Amino acid sequence: MRSMLSFRIRQNKPREGAALNFYATRTGVFDDRSVATGSLFAACTAMALRVDELQGRVVHLERALQSNRQIGTALGILMARELYTEEHAFDLLREASQRLNRKLADIADEVTVTGLLPHFDRPQH
């Protein structure tokens, strides 16, 4: 390697850095046109990284919304069937999740399908 042209990739994450590097086997091959072209590539790369980050956020939010709906449905089922308050129904879902070592949304999904809270041993007071 005799020449290198490097561009910083700007990101929204201040503690993370990225660079786009071009290498050549001869010296003096990078001119103003190379710099302009590299700048465009760097800008496009930054945009692609941002799009990827935002798509990941969208997927996360969609999952969170679906989980929230599952939990709300399960709460409604427990409240209607057992005449629990919303707070008590949620406490039972949470406790089942913790004792069975399963995600709260999975417990809620089971309640939605079966109409019943999965069995778990409750400590004696």
UniProtKB/TrEMBL annotation:
SUPFAM superfamilies xrefs: CheY-like
Coiled-coil spans in chain: none
One annotated GO molecular function: RNA binding
UniProt xrefs under Gene3D superfamilies: Winged helix-like DNA-binding domain superfamily/Winged helix DNA-binding domain
Domain ANTAR, chain residue ranges per copy: 51-112
Listed InterPro entries: ANTAR, CheY-like_superfamily, WH-like_DNA-bd_sf
Lineage top rank: taxon: Bacteria
Pfam family, one: ANTAR
Protein name (Swiss-Prot/TrEMBL): ANTAR domain-containing protein
